[in-house]
């Protein structure tokens, strides 16, 4: 995020989150990862914000708790919204992180995931050139939207929104990138599956039991046509 293309990506991600987060309500929201000292929860209407990060954070923003994302020190069923800003790409076990998110979320709570699309110009750049340099984001493991959907479905989540964005190649020249803005407008309509990045929102669904009335059936006669006894016997 210190380089031009990263700054442009962060600007776009902020715009999308500023539209999504005000629509999610509750009492507690947790952001896992500080992104070089950037607080992405500024426009959330939820009163209590918590930042979790395994490192010391940036110079302007210090997390409230130091913790690994696959072992979140939060009580089960206590959080309304969890934000994962490119957290899954750089951890060894992203599925375990989603299990932790499922554990701490309340029923009908939401998880917001920021990710990079491997089937894009960004993914192609990572495989051909970027992965060799060992820098972020190219050193991460890009996860496709269908793969994330499958993991969430196994945990009982329902995907309610997918925002695809940034169809331009990851060039470090801001002037050139500004001239290629038309690719974002055209890409969203013509080739949405080739987006460079995405924002995914999923809701935690909890199965409820529906009580059913018993079906009472009259007793059948042992032999048809026989008269009932006139007196009862114990």
Key attributes of the depicted protein:
6 helices; seven-stranded mixed sheet; 7 strands; 234 residues; alpha/beta
**What is the overall number of helices?**
6
Low-confidence spans: pLDDT under 50, at least 5 residues? none
Distance between the termini: 87 Å
Strand order of the largest sheet: 3-2-1-4-5-7-6
Structure class: alpha/beta
Shape category: globular
Q: How do the SSEs run, as a string of H and E?
A: HEEEEHEHHEHHE
Rounded Rg = 26 Å
Largest sheet: 7 strands, mixed
Provide the residue-averaged pLDDT.
Answer: 85
Total DSSP E strands: 7
% residues in beta strands: 15-25%
Helix content: 25-40%
Task: Characterize the structure shown.
With 234 residues, the chain is an alpha/beta fold. The chain is 28% helix and 21% strand. It has six helices and seven strands. The chain has helices at 4-20, 94-104, 121-133, 145-154, 174-179, 182-190, and strands at residues 28-32, 48-53, 65-66, 79-85, 105-116, 157-165, 197-204. A seven-stranded mixed sheet has the order 3-2-1-4-5-7-6, sandwiched between helices. Helix 2 links the parallel strand 4 and strand 5 (105-116). The chain is globular. It starts with a helix and ends in a 30-residue tail after the last strand. The model has no long low-confidence stretch (mean pLDDT 85).
